[in-house]
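YM 10:42: Spy/CpxP family protein refolding chaperone sequence, as discussed on the call
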Amino acid sequence: MKAFQIPNLLRAATVAAALVLGGAAAQAQPGHGGPGGHHGGPAMMAPGGLFGGHMEHLLDLVNATDSQRSQIEAIFKAARQDLSGQRETGRKLHEQMATLYTATNVDAAAIEAVRVQMSALHETASKRLSQASIDAARVLTPEQRAKIAEIMKKRQARMAARHAG
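YM 10:58: structure's back
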């Protein structure tokens, strides 16, 4: 079992965030549930530079203004700060789980209790980062979100083609 680490969760979620931004754009298009429609699912961004570089590149592609970049950076800086304390908690839970699995007698109830705690930690991070992604999407124009959706659709098609062959 891999340790729950906020930085890894955030890095992996950069693309998910772009999908949410793109999904929001798709929802804003006629015939897709109207403005503000939502597909659901977690939406998260990565730390490091402005979102690990991936979101910075997307913001470049949609010609985001300095003001938009500053607002989005502040949104995710706040989210990272809100979640910073969870890293140590996740590490301790992982260690606790490993100890439970290596004990002489495997205690199913104790393992389930730790699993529930780990799930709650993941859910908290997911909710906070989803809200940050929603806030960031609202900073961008519908046209910018539509362009991100187009970029992500092409990226998904390339990934699918790689995995199919």
